[in-house]
């Protein structure tokens, strides 16, 4: 850890920089004291590789002439609140003082009566006294090598967290926190997650044995910045009374902290706090690395939450499938059996109506199971002759007065035969439901690059209503007296095969299936 912080001098007066150097030596002379770095205003231009030369300073001394330049003023305004700015002025008029205060100067030293000999500057000199009172060079900061090592730790952490299983999330996050905390010489890292208005500690690395308590959002420093997804870095605050008056109410020294937001789907879902009990100077590079860790944790938590939600949903769907396949199908089988036994006792018209209702219920149960069992949308695929599968599917559709025509050579496609048949059955039933019992249906090829790139299913019915054009594949959408599930299943099967399907009108409804690149290669007859 690099503990030798920097005092920056900004100005073009060599005499002033020499006197500041002597004042620094007078207060902190020795190898452990702060280093003085001298900058002219042009060194602070915005286009210097995006790096802030004042990034690592524990304090800045600036001449009055330099402090009023725009580029210097902008840099001083961007400094953390715990980095003091001391301005040197030879003519401390009220106008000059107001200008320096407007330029974010925290203190002003009148240099007009300084001794001409820099050697006469000692610890009693006004500038030395101001430096000693304002600057805290013992604050810990990460050096360049420390930042590089911490970057490597986070790179390894990214690989680890991205491959974390659900049962490893907490362990891996806290293991990463420990690595980061030890490399950065922190005292605590705590991840708070939002829960009903409170931020509750979810993961943490606290080698001192402390147990963080839930906190309201307002208890974090600068909640307004956190709410807009900004980082908040604060140095330690000295002990004192909370209200600044009297000695009755005492507060302990607060730790130096960096708080970074956890952002998921553009919402604040938590906060990660990095804390140091030692006085600390947070560099921009260091804070950026902490933000990277926060982003990694947010992504890991969000992915695990989605995984947990999907697992819960899968369990619910499995329960639903069990109810559908057992609790509904069994009574339906009983009803179907008694109906068969009563066939001779019922008038044909009544029997046909009741038998059709039973068949319809069986179809609905099959459709519901298809929608529920998402993981079983398709099985093993093979080159399938489309015309043969279409004929088989047509044989399962009860529409004796309707007709099916295979127009042209539709070839083969790489597909799950059973699921392709089910998709065609649903398209045929959809045509009968909407086009009537005497509808004419045509299946033909879609050509692409000189070969078969897909197929179409068209009918001569009334077509797709304009108001349903964008939702025709949504579950429950239908303009006929049907469940509206059939086309949703078709869309699911098409998507599972990585094909595309579109619906349009052309003297009836037309559904065009475009096969993927792999399927197209085997589409020739």
From TrEMBL:
Catalytic activity: ATP + protein L-histidine = ADP + protein N-phospho-L-histidine
Single GO term (MF): phosphorelay sensor kinase activity
Keyword Cell membrane: no
Keyword vocabulary terms for this entry: Kinase, Transferase, Two-component regulatory system
Record-annotated Histidine kinase domain positions: 323-519
A Pfam family: GAF_3
Ranges in coiled-coil conformation: none
Signal peptide: none
Lineage: superkingdom: Archaea
Entry keyword RNA-binding: no
Record-linked PROSITE patterns: HIS_KIN (PS50109)
UniProt EC number: 2.7.13.3
PANTHER family linked: HISTIDINE KINASE 1, TWO-COMPONENT HISTIDINE KINASE
UniProt protein name: histidine kinase
């Amino acid at each position: 850890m690099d503990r030798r912080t920097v005092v920056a001098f900004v100005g073009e007066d060599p005499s002033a920089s020499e006197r500041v150097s002597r004042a620094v030596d007078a207060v902190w002379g020795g190898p452990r004291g702060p280093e003085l770095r001298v900058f002219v205003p042009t060194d602070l231009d915005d286009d210097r590789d995006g790096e802030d030369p004042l990034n690592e300073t524990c304090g800045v001394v600036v001449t009055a002439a330099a402090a009023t330049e725009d580029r210097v003023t902008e840099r001083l305004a961007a400094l953390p609140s715990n980095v003091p700015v001391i301005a040197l002025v030879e003519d401390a008029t009220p106008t000059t003082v107001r200008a320096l205060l407007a330029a974010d100067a925290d203190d002003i030293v009148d240099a007009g009566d300084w001794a001409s000999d820099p050697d006469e500057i000692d610890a009693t000199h006004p500038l030395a006294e101001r430096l000693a009172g304002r600057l805290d060079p013992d604050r810990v900061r990460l050096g360049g090598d420390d930042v590089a090592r911490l970057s490597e730790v986070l790179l390894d952490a990214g690989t680890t967290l991205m491959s974390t299983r659900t049962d490893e999330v907490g362990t891996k996050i806290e293991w990463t926190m420990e690595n980061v905390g030890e490399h950065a010489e922190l005292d605590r890292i705590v991840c708070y997650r939002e829960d009903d208005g409170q931020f509750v500690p979810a993961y943490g690395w606290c080698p001192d044995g402390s147990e963080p308590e839930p906190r309201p959002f307002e208890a974090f420093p600068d909640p307004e910045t956190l709410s807009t997804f900004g980082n908040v870095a604060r140095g330690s605050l000295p002990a004192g009374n909370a209200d600044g008056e009297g000695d009755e109410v005492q507060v302990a020294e607060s730790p130096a902290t960096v708080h970074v937001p956890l952002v998921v789907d553009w919402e604040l879902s938590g906060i990660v706090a990095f804390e140091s009990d030692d006085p600390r100077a947070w560099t921009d590079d260091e804070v950026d690395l902490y933000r990277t860790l926060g982003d990694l944790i947010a992504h890991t938590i969000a992915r695990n939450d989605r995984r947990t939600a999907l697992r819960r949903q899968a369990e619910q769907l499995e329960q639903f499938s069990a109810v559908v396949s057992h609790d509904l199908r069994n009574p339906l089988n009983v009803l179907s059996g008694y109906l068969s036994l009563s066939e001779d006792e019922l008038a044909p018209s009544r029997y046909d109506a009741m038998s059709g209702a039973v068949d319809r219920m069986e179809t609905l149960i099959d459709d519901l199971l298809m929608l529920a069992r998402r993981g079983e949308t398709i099985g093993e695929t093979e080159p399938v002759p489309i015309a043969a599968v279409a004929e088989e599917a047509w044989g399962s559709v009860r529409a004796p007065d309707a007709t099916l025509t295979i127009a042209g050579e539709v070839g083969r496609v790489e597909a799950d035969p059973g699921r392709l048949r089910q998709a065609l059955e649903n398209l045929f039933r959809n045509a009968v439901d909407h086009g009537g019992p005497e509808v004419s249906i045509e299946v033909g090829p879609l050509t692409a690059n000189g070969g078969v790139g897909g197929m179409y299913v068209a009918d001569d019915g009334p077509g797709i209503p304009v108001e349903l054009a964008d939702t025709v594949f949504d579950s429950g959408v239908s303009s006929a007296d049907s469940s509206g599930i059939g086309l949703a299943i078709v869309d699911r099967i098409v998507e599972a095969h990585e094909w595309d399907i579109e619906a349009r009108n052309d003297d009836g409804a037309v559904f065009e299936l475009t096969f993927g690149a792999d399927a197209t290669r085997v589409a020739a007859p």
